[in-house]
Amino acid sequence: MHRKFPETPSEISHASLLRRLVAMLYDALICVALLMVTTGIYMATSASIMGTEKYQQLTESGGTLHDPLLSSLLFVVLYMFFGYFWTRTGQTLGMQVWHIRIQNPDGTSISWMQALMRFFMAGIAMGCAGLGYLWMFIDKGKLTWQDRFSDTRTVRIPKRK
Fold this sequence. Notes:
It is built from 7 helices and 3 strands. It is mostly helical. The chain has one domain. A 3-stranded antiparallel beta sheet has the order 1-3-2. Helix 1 (17-50) crosses helix 2 (52-60) and helix 3 crosses helix 5.
């Protein structure tokens, strides 16, 4: 069920590219730590299942470099991180610091499907040399590719007192 956010339309504005990028930097640091912990747990679990010596040999020979199970797990962990925050409060930790939020055009929280669509398109937008983010400078609604694709808005909200 969608949660209605308390701010009125007159209290919010479009989030600037600078605010979005700085919030992304904050979140990137958290994501790196999250991915490192997940990888460590995965490697420890794999080593305990296979045996430490066998897993060490596999690692040293490069056999674990392109592990599809680990790649899938890391993808799911990242999606769960962003999806959890976006669907509950509309804000990741970095977004909270910079007072920006993801929401539906009607001011409600987004769904898990919208979060997945946004997550996919954000990767594509960044992968195209950031073109998907720069798109907001020519878009009439100041929307990025992921905003358009997921029918969401990234807004600046007032500081809470």
